Amino acid sequence: MAQAKSMRLIPFEKIASEVATLCIRANSVLPDDVHRAIEQAYARESNPLAKGFLNEYLQNAEIAATEQEALCQDTGFAVFFIEMGEDCAVSGGSLSNAIEEGIRRGYRDGFLRKSIVSDPLFHRINTKDNTPGIIHLTLVPGDQLSITLAPKGGGSENMSAIRMLKPSDGKQGVLDFVVECVRAAGGCPCPPTVVGVGIGGTFEKAAYLAKKALLRDLAQSNSNPDYAALEQEILDKLNQTGVGAQGLGGDVTSFAVHIEFFPCHIASLPVAVNLNCHAARHASITL
Length: 287
Description:
Layout: E1 8-11, H1 12-28, H2 32-44, H3 48-67, E2 79-85, E3 88-91, H4 95-109, E4 134-140, E5 145-149, H5 154-157, E6 161-165, H6 170-185, E7 193-201, H7 203-213, H8 225-238, E8 254-264, E9 269-276, E10 283-286
């Protein structure tokens, strides 16, 4: 008879403490790939007004990191992408409760704005601790717990869109839809943007893929050459729109376009677009 595997236990308190730290770090330290993208955009930008904005973005990032203050006053919905090993478990409580406790501590101790209301329609009362968070959980082999936090502000999130295209719309339909979304968003998502695109799956899967796509390093193209070529084609079209930094014109409207795809029904071609602002915030920890 095969011997059962022993589970690795991760303490509730350890998770809560690390999540609190992630909340502060993600909101105050610009990721290296995003910092490089702003520097590169500054170097190539010919519009003086846009160039000035890009320089202010870099100055803001330096101040935020040095003073451990928020990069933006909108410290966002706490969105988590978690990969949990099948051979680990939480001791002393549940994973979801540990994440919630970490959000409370992090947004309190980091003096981060609390932006979540308890009821979306009838009783929009602030929860006062930025909970609940959004948790996307994936079970994976192993005994480690990987947590990525991507705070999502309202300005960029409100520019999200999904369209159930017909398969006959094909590549051109996808390209036109993404360009339409970014052009219509204008300055609302505080461009230059990072554009996440989810293609395939179902209605909700496409939206998830679009948001997950925003986590990829900005310099990393899709591993599939067809999708990598489409990413570049869409990016070139976006940077020809003239939307520019803060929507006031310029050469750089978007830093990157990232596509994630999934098999879909023979009758369907769902496409979702999710935008990040120029401060594409995220931070990760593996326990």
